[in-house]
Design a protein that fits this description.
The chain is 40% helix and 12% strand. It contains 23 helices and 16 strands. Helix 4 packs parallel to helix 5.
Length: 594
Amino acid sequence: MATAPVYGRSPVGYSADLGRILALPRRDLAASYTAANVEALEAALRSPSLQCTCASMSPPRPCPLRLRRVQAQALLEASRIGGLLGPIGTGHGKELTTFLMPMVMPGCRVAVLFISAGLLPQFEAEWSYYGAHWKLPNLAGGRWFRVGLPVLHVITYNKLSSQDATDLLERIRPDLVILNEAHSLKDPRTSRTSRFLRYFEKHPRTRLVALSGTFASKSIKDYAHLSRLALGEGSPLPLAHHVVEEWGTALDPGKVVAPPGELERLCEPREHVREGFQRRRNATPGVVATEESALDKPLIIRERKVGPVPAQLFALIELAHAGERPDGEQFQEQLQAVACARQLSAGFYHRWRYPRGEPHELIEQWFARRKAWNKEVWEELKGKRREHLDSPGLLTKAAIRAHMSPPYEGDKPVWHAATWTEWTEIHAAVQPEPQAVWVSDFLVKDAAEWARSRVGIVWVEYPELGERIAKEAGVPFYGGGKTASEDILRETGRRSIVASIKAHATGKNLQQFSRNLVVTPPSDGATWEQLLARTHRPGQLAPCVEVDVCLHTQDYVSAFATARERARFIQQTDGQPQKLLTPTHTLMPFRTIA
């Protein structure tokens, strides 16, 4: 049950942005396109080929002969408006929408589709599956080229973050950019997002189609910049950064919030300000949103009774919250204490080890100089980012060029960093290695017993924990990397597996499983939505999907409670029902930890 807000800020005031948004036309999406519009779209995009291998796939898949309603709406709306903001929930077929988008966007010659790295193996399979039935654009680097069709470059977000991608978009020069899982570009402070924004600043006529099941996990700031680039003056979110910040004080989750003030103009009588915002946003031309779950089957979420939890572990967790690691190391920041407490809840903690035996004084000096260098890099990146100077690695190369003897005379920029000389003198003198120190295997044994006694996916945050559970249970662990992403898709659902939340909880089709154990519950509502949608999605043949959650420490209880609070924010502002909040789930009450 939601707690009453505590108003500790000034009410949201009137702004030119609010006036602009109130004046935007409203549109009933369901009435905007007729059955004839959809049939004409399908006829134009349908491939004349009748040969396919759908029936022989493992497992067999139905031929995708018709577009789903939301797919057709997204394609028609994007072609009409020249851009799209698509808060489309998981399981509604965003893949085919992104494949067909260059074919419907007027005048499109070169398009770029950004996807998560872990989805590359699935992309290749889906491209062949849909390509047998629909006219797709030319795939850059593909086996065939058809004159007159647009060219689609498929790039991972990780690639956009790499050092050699500082001018990647400039080299491709797309006139259309498509973002699947667009929330991957929510933070303008990252190298990938700054490069993306820099390209649109230089080429403002570039069209943007941004799709995501969860645009905002914590704040409307997560996607205001994407809405602006996709829809321009037609954006239903503020264009001015300070207005976005002000609206966030009333809309974003938090213990202390602002009264809605002038934002009540968006609302019907007695309507929550988030719901008024969501309704106004979804009625804006250029926005196509889903407001229902893609799967009408029960989702059962319950606590996994883990026990007994060693009393020693509770004592070490309490010590971590007091600022001390189990080996006596003092934390410098609260975030370090929280991270250690979460690790201890799983039975281990991380620390540095020094196999070369460096003296303590040298180690302290090394960390101090590293901290000063990292701070200077961070401050530099907070400014206006330029090509070849927009990531820590590229700044390091620029600092090296600045201190070359004889002086560097090339065409790349140099950076005269104040802390570089002291850091370069010592950076190779200490070579720490991360080490996982195990305190107890209680959670490993419990999760392994779960995996042996039924078939399902064991979800973990930490690779060390995943590997240990998998070994104890005698099942495979799928961590990061291309090979793991390929192999997990080949699983038939006849045995349990252990999977990394970070690597596999987004985008993948894992509906061959219907049971899940979340060993380390995330605190982010968007992460939960993605994780639950791996198995609670169209194609699920089981009568229901079951999810067991480990809530044996207060840290995990708090993480789960925070996730539900953030899921409520997403549901109220996006309109998409969040699986963590759906009335079909049941959660057993958790006992209070002393």
